[in-house]
Amino acid sequence: MSRHRNVRNTAYDDYDDDDIVGSVSDEPECISPTDAKQWIFDRAKGQSSLEQFLSKNEDIQEEVEENNDDRNIFDGKVRRDSEHYQLPDLNDIDKSKLLSCMEEIRNIIGETYSDKRLVEAIMSNNFNFDKALDCLLNGENNNTQQQRSKTTETIEKGISNVLYEKSQQMKQQRTKLTIKITPASKIKTSGFEISSPKVQSPKTQSPSGSGRNSPDEEQNKSNRTKEALRNARELYEKERGSEKEQLHLVVIGHVDAGKSTMMGHLLYDLGNVPQRLMHKYEQESKKLGKQSFAFAWVLDETGEERTRGITMDCGLQRFETPTKQVTLLDAPGHKDFIPNMICGANQADVAILVVDATRGEFEAGFEQGGQTREHALLVRSLGVSQLCVAVNKLDNENWSQERFNDIMTKLKQFLKQAGFKDSEVHYIPCSGLTGENLVKPSTEPALKSWYNGKTLLEVVDSFKVPERAIDKPFRMSISDVFKGVGSAGFCISGRIASGHVCVNDKVLMCPSREQCVVKYITIDDVQVQTAFAGDQVAITITGIDPSNVSVGFILCDTLNPVPLETKIKARIIVFNVKTPITIGYPVLLHHHSLVEPAIISKLKAQLHKGTGEVIKKNPRCLTNNSCALIELSFQRAIAIEKYSELKEMGRIMLRVGGTTIAAGLVF
């Protein structure tokens, strides 16, 4: 015990700070002579043991070298090298296509192949999902059989006959398992069931005997796959077949024409506004000395709008007619809020143009630089072809038929020049304040004596719903970004221009090219699983930073992203401009909710307004009412599409100094 410390009687004050109980000693541990023998290497014995080991395991080394990437045939599992595999350096579009294809293939074949093999198959087939899947399931059979045969030969040399028979049995079971996996009957995708692509058996060969399908068969197979994956028409009929048709209606016209009052009274007569709430609006407007504005407050909900007595943003309400569900967009009439009006008109299928029949007021809005002309031109340029002209406040003119005919004659000529067909324009006399001829036929004797046509509600119900681009790639223009309820991402709202989207779909945010996931879809505050072209929706998304999303961005399909352009060609119609348009002319481009500075970099040709023929190449300038082919340049890339590819994404507006100078189509 002499070499051990006397712990009980130790005086710790006598030690230095570093010399304390429990400190680690730097001295090496002692090794007894007996234990030291294990560290002595016998060169002769070690050399003979190594030679013996190598001779016994020569076959095993060959097997490991030959089958370094191969599968273990006894447990049927695959050893993947995906953990250390780096994806190739690609641009954003190709990378998005690659990841989407990989995910779709994984949904069908599971973890059977490594990421490296998937990438090789996808890129060798130019990101074609069908061909890559065929390459993996059909083209791999020969290589797999060769690798298995080599492995079997190696096993036969060093394994007993019992293990060899067992390996053969396991190989047969695995072959049967592969064949069973191939024709997956159904795949669950985004909340609804779709048929999976039928994979051809490895034994099936083309007539040429090459083992691959002929080009015609490949094309037909691709068409069948696309139809099976997302047959949007059938899905739409299943989801919406029993519902009324959806119609988006925008109300436009000069400031103080009575748009909000008319539509507020319409909603009240339809029972969409409770009597108690209407009584409250009447009392509050009476206190402010604006009793005639009570019906307008149904749509003008903000305090500033009610104080100023004008609409500043697009009011949104919904009502039903006998055959349709109508989304009402009350656009502002003041010239300072034309951009808001353009956003509303971009979402519309049809329009109501409200004009004030009072003498002097109609002329101010139509002939003296008012917004009646500009609004009509804007909605026509944005694709609205069906129009109802509501001649409002005709009671101020004692329901004069002469005044009504005078207004109708002036508007007919102008609207025809703007591109509206006479058969698609309806004219009705009405009064928004008294409610005459809005929902029920008029009881006013002075009006009944000469008018027995449709009411405003009947005209709206007679509008035809435009054909929706449901079977086109998914496109949605973002009109608002806001924080949703809960912690699951954030919300964006807008109208779906084409295609459809489902919950849990992966989508692409353009022009940032970031991928995100759809968590929730809401229509009219009701959560749904699927939304289609024409729907006004709020979508909750995750996987992307909200600071990287802005109004005017486009949400689109990952496999068919919207193009990004810094230069576009457009065919435009010039309205009234104070100075001629020349090269280098700065403008503001309006595309859905996007407002982007641009420069007219080229004037390629001046065109005939009626036939579209080239009148003059490379003109020096463009004047009023001219038609031309121009080139626009931007400082950054914007998400925009050609009109020939998708009409809803190919219309633009050009504005300068608060005035719309031109409208056109992207070529």
UniProtKB/TrEMBL annotation:
<dbReference type="Pfam" id="PF00009">
    <property type="entry name" value="GTP_EFTU"/>
</dbReference>
<dbReference type="GO" id="GO:0005737">
    <property type="term" value="C:cytoplasm"/>
</dbReference>
<dbReference type="InterPro" id="IPR004161">
    <property type="entry name" value="EFTu-like_2"/>
</dbReference>
<feature type="compositionally biased region" description="Basic and acidic residues">
    <location>
        <begin position="214"/>
        <end position="226"/>
    </location>
</feature>
<keyword id="KW-0648">Protein biosynthesis</keyword>
<dbReference type="InterPro" id="IPR027417">
    <property type="entry name" value="P-loop_NTPase"/>
</dbReference>
<keyword id="KW-0597">Phosphoprotein</keyword>
<dbReference type="InterPro" id="IPR000795">
    <property type="entry name" value="T_Tr_GTP-bd_dom"/>
</dbReference>
<dbReference type="GO" id="GO:0003924">
    <property type="term" value="F:GTPase activity"/>
</dbReference>
<dbReference type="GO" id="GO:0005525">
    <property type="term" value="F:GTP binding"/>
</dbReference>
<dbReference type="GO" id="GO:0006417">
    <property type="term" value="P:regulation of translation"/>
</dbReference>
<protein>
    <recommendedName>
        <fullName>Tr-type G domain-containing protein</fullName>
    </recommendedName>
</protein>
<dbReference type="Pfam" id="PF08938">
    <property type="entry name" value="HBS1_N"/>
</dbReference>
<keyword id="KW-0547">Nucleotide-binding</keyword>
<feature type="domain" description="Tr-type G">
    <location>
        <begin position="244"/>
        <end position="467"/>
    </location>
</feature>
<dbReference type="Pfam" id="PF22594">
    <property type="entry name" value="GTP-eEF1A_C"/>
</dbReference>
<dbReference type="GO" id="GO:0006412">
    <property type="term" value="P:translation"/>
</dbReference>
<feature type="region of interest" description="Disordered">
    <location>
        <begin position="190"/>
        <end position="226"/>
    </location>
</feature>
<dbReference type="InterPro" id="IPR009001">
    <property type="entry name" value="Transl_elong_EF1A/Init_IF2_C"/>
</dbReference>
<keyword id="KW-0810">Translation regulation</keyword>
<dbReference type="InterPro" id="IPR009000">
    <property type="entry name" value="Transl_B-barrel_sf"/>
</dbReference>
<dbReference type="InterPro" id="IPR050100">
    <property type="entry name" value="TRAFAC_GTPase_members"/>
</dbReference>
<feature type="region of interest" description="Disordered">
    <location>
        <begin position="1"/>
        <end position="20"/>
    </location>
</feature>
<keyword id="KW-0963">Cytoplasm</keyword>
<keyword id="KW-0378">Hydrolase</keyword>
<dbReference type="Pfam" id="PF03144">
    <property type="entry name" value="GTP_EFTU_D2"/>
</dbReference>
<feature type="compositionally biased region" description="Polar residues">
    <location>
        <begin position="197"/>
        <end position="213"/>
    </location>
</feature>
<comment type="similarity">
    <text>Belongs to the TRAFAC class translation factor GTPase superfamily. Classic translation factor GTPase family. EF-Tu/EF-1A subfamily.</text>
</comment>
<dbReference type="InterPro" id="IPR015033">
    <property type="entry name" value="HBS1-like_N"/>
</dbReference>
<dbReference type="InterPro" id="IPR037189">
    <property type="entry name" value="HBS1-like_N_sf"/>
</dbReference>
<keyword id="KW-0342">GTP-binding</keyword>
<dbReference type="InterPro" id="IPR054696">
    <property type="entry name" value="GTP-eEF1A_C"/>
</dbReference>
